[in-house]
Design a protein that fits this description.
single chain; alpha+beta; Lambda Exonuclease, Chain A; five-stranded mixed beta sheet; disordered N terminus; binds iron/sulfur cluster
């Protein structure tokens, strides 16, 4: 059986986990370069390996994993147990499925019971929200499972994302898709795109926040830069000559303009970060960038021979020489747990201050705030 570690060396050309990019921006298929593995990716691999062991009933030494990972894996496996208790399903764990030459993947968990197919994907990351709806990766896995396991009777397909560590959202997202719609998508979208990429015919750039987020080409992508400028120009007229005084005053923008700019801001931030990194890289390599120069970054002064410095300082100003700070409630609870002390002993000393109002996407799990407009207006004046 192919293990996760081996997949790294034998990566699918048309990787389902990157389908959101190559399916939408076909040019990126040849421009994006596989990135070095990150510590987050390694954590994800470890969490998946643990989940696999648990689902296969293998022995697990809990000392090898931190409590956050154990909790996340417990949540993921509890969802699978729930479905198994409702009605026994045939189960495949870490199942490799092939769709078409060059397009294959490993599904975290497949459940099947004669007409219902569940494709379950465990996401350990907590930085980027992943939805089950319109999820190209899950749709490819579902097609792969139907082909690979010869599930000719399938009627309903359930796509699951289980992302326990992402804050303020339901950790289990479920989307049902009719098998007819899934097959139509495969025939009319997936296969033609793979064919056109293989034949290098009709390739196009299609920048979007979703497609460009992890694309390694984003720092030098002309299409993305033009896309960002086009968005900017709808509000800023001539981006090349923008100065602070020429930017529209936010309180003169319409609600539609504010929403448009807010939605584009993530893409802009990513692009500007990539532009900064590219400019720095060129300057470090010796390029002259008109109007810019390489300087040493700012740093605050630090103590050296800290203990000696502290002793000297204490001789002048005694306890004013240092500060002590209590650890956070979360850190305290973790430490009590490690010592097997009931964390509830701290309850009376912990409170949660009310958060300032912030704007979030409408699918955010937090309850919508209803503010008293008159009171708010008084604060502003
Ligand atoms: S940065 Fe975006 S538009 Fe450019 S190649 Fe990558 S995915 Fe396509």
């Amino acid at each position: 059986m192919i293990k996760r570690g081996e997949i790294k060396m034998k990566h699918a050309d048309f990787s389902p986990s990157a389908a959101y990019r190559w399916l939408n921006c076909t040019e990126s298929f040849y421009l994006h370069k596989q990135q070095e593995t990150s510590s987050e990716a390694e954590e994800g691999t470890k969490a998946h390996a643990l989940a696999e062991k648990v689902l296969k009933g293998e022995n697990v030494n809990s000392d090898d994993y931190d409590s956050e990972m154990i909790q996340a894996v417990n949540y993921y496996t509890s969802i699978i147990d729930y479905y198994q208790q409702q009605e026994p399903h045939k189960i495949w764990v870490e199942k490799r499925v092939n769709i078409i030459e060059g397009c294959f993947g490993t599904v975290d968990c497949i459940l099947w019971n004669d007409n219902e197919l569940h494709i379950i994907d465990f996401k350990y990351g907590k930085g980027v929200f992943v939805d089950a709806k319109d999820n190209d990766q899950l749709k490819i896995y579902a097609i792969g499972a139907i082909i690979e396991l010869k599930l000719t009777q399938v009627q309903d397909v359930y796509l699951h994302i289980i992302q326990p560590r992402y804050p303020n959202q339901e950790p289990h997202r479920l989307h049902k898709i009719d098998v007819k719609d899934l097959k139509e998508w495969g025939v009319n979208k997936l296969i033609p795109v793979i064919k056109s990429i293989k034949e290098k015919k009709g390739l196009c750039f299609n920048p979007s926040e979703h497609a460009c987020r992890w694309c390694s080409h984003s720092g030098s992508c002309k299409a993305l830069a033009e896309h960002n400028l086009a968005i900017a120009k709808t509000d800023f007229k001539d981006i090349a000559n923008v100065e602070e005084s020429t930017l529209p005053v936010p309180n003169e923008l319409s609600n539609e303009q504010l929403v448009q700019i807010k939605k584009a801001s993530d893409l802009f931030k990513k692009w500007l970060k990539a532009v900064d990194a590219e400019a720095l890289r060129r300057a470090r390599a010796g390029d002259k960038l008109p109007g810019l120069k390489l300087v040493e970054g700012r740093k605050n002064r630090k103590w050296q021979r800290e203990e000696e410095a502290l002793n000297l300082l204490k001789s002048f100003i005694s306890e004013e020489a240092y500060t002590t700070k209590i650890i956070t409630p979360a850190q305290a609870e973790k430490k009590l747990k490690e010592r097997k002390i009931d964390k509830n002993v701290l309850n009376e000393f912990i409170y949660k201050p009310q958060g300032e109002p912030v704007l979030a996407n409408e699918n955010d799990k937090r309850k919508e705030l209803k503010l008293n407009a008159e009171e708010e207006f008084k604060c502003i004046n």
